[in-house]
Specification:
Elements lengths: L2 H18 L21 H29 L7 H20 L1
Helix pairs in contact: 2-3
Length: about 100
């Protein structure tokens, strides 16, 4: 293998570790924050509701900021909605992990 490929592979593997960890220490076992709800306990349901509320608050904040930057001409597209969701999802998961 070429040294640059090995270095790149090593770098990507080391960076994917924190991204792949889904805050396993703080979530109840089998509790998914996003996606289809699972039959979990009350703690999981409360975390899912709090997660959705925090993501919605973050998305509203980003929308207001974008509207201010665009001078009131900002239009909501599927791409901008998806980008806001991904940013807010990561932000809220980081706050839960702390």
């Amino acid at each position: 293998m070429k040294p640059s490929f090995v270095f790149t592979l090593f770098l990507l593997a080391s960076l994917s570790g924190p991204a792949a960890a889904d805050t396993a220490e703080t979530l109840p076992k089998g509790c998914n924050l996003a996606g289809r709800p699972v039959d979990g306990d009350d703690a999981c349901k409360e975390m899912r509701v709090a997660f959705r509320a925090d993501v919605n608050t973050c998305m509203a904040r980003l929308s207001v900021e974008a509207e201010a930057r665009a001078g009131g001409n900002e239009s909501l597209t599927s791409h901008s909605y998806r980008a806001r969701y991904l940013l807010c999802d990561a932000e809220v998961r980081d706050s839960i992990a702390r």
